[in-house]
Ureidoglycolate lyase (Azotobacter bryophylli), 166 residues
Amino acid sequence: MRTLTIEPLSKEAFAPFGEVIETEGSDFFPINNGTTRRYHRLATVETATPEDRAIISIFRARTLPRPLPIAMLERHPLGSQAFVPLRGQPFLIVVAPPGAAPAPEQVRAFLGDGRQGVNYHRGVWHHPLLVIADEDDFLVIDRAGPGDNCDEHFFAEGDRPLLSYP
Ligand SMILES: NC(=O)N[C@@H](O)C(=O)O
Ligand code: NI
């Protein structure tokens, strides 16, 4: 069982999976008579059909026991999915590149610093929300519409990468 290396979340490192939603290192322009910085279009909501809608939800999640064998990943083939932490707490992200099925050796882990959100592109394999605190809240922007928008892939027991974080 391979223990995942937990990488710091950065735009560059996360680029194969989506965008990082953060002010650090992001362009902005002044609005509201110079009283506000607009960090414009940090990420793009992807949908699949004209009747799709981008929706905004809040997820209140509880932490999972760690170390955590990564038994499964999921993907949303019809739309992107963004998670923005609302309490400023770090959280964990586990992803694999889009494709027919995630290969265990392609699974990567990142640590968001609490001031960063992520936007998974359509079809990117990811583990459901992984919070570090006992409980955490996230603003979630994703797609609502017809059709099944959640595929799951389960790793064979011996192939499960291990997520180990204090
Ligand atoms: N199922 C659901 O809405 N949440 C997952 O997609 C997730 O990524 O947490
Ligand atoms: Ni998801």
